[in-house]
Amino acid sequence: MGNLDFANHAGFSWYCLFLMFSGIALLVLAVLKKQLPQRRIVQAIFGLGFFGYGFYLTFIWGGGSYFVFFYAFVVPVMLIVNAFRGNATRRVPAQPPVGLGSANMPPVNLQPMVDPGPPMADPGVPPMRDPGLPPMPS
């Protein structure tokens, strides 16, 4: 089947299969409608790239040198985890904004501040001296 030779080049063969599997998994995730459109586009681009490069190496490539993208091992795992984590956070009911909660509350009666003037002493108590002043001569 193409360039897959598990007896002589097992690493290359597994790499090609992993590229194509990762691409298909990312394309399946991109089709799910539970995600933001930007994430779906990114997953579709990476999915097409991984599957296309894996397909090229498996069926079209004629030998020579090839690139091993270590991102092919990391990016699919990160995108799959991010997709499921994004779905889990989206399932939690959102708290209503603070401003919307005041619609059910009665209006607050705010009065303008009025200057009450100087403080008034209790009429039954003689005025006190300021403790910072020196004693008055008697």
- Radius of gyration, taken over Cα atoms and rounded to an integer in Å: 37 Å
- Tally the helices: 4
Structural class, judged by helices and strands? mainly alpha
| Uncertain residue ranges | none
Order of helices and strands: HHHH
* Beta-strand share of residues: under 5%
Mean pLDDT: 77
Q: Which sheet architecture does the biggest sheet show?
A: none
Helix content: 40-55%
Tags for this entry?
0% strand; 138 residues; mainly alpha; 4 helices
Describe it for me?
The chain is mostly helical and 138 residues long. It has a domain at 10-91. 51% of the residues lie in helices and 0% in strands. It is built from four helices and no strands. It has helices at 10-31, 37-60, 71-91, 98-101. Helix 1 (10-31) runs antiparallel to helix 2 (37-60), helix 1 packs parallel to helix 3 and helix 2 runs antiparallel to helix 3 (71-91). The longest helix has 24 residues, at 37-60. It is rod-shaped, with a radius of gyration of 37 Å.
Short description:
With 138 residues, the protein is mostly helical. It has four helices and no strands.
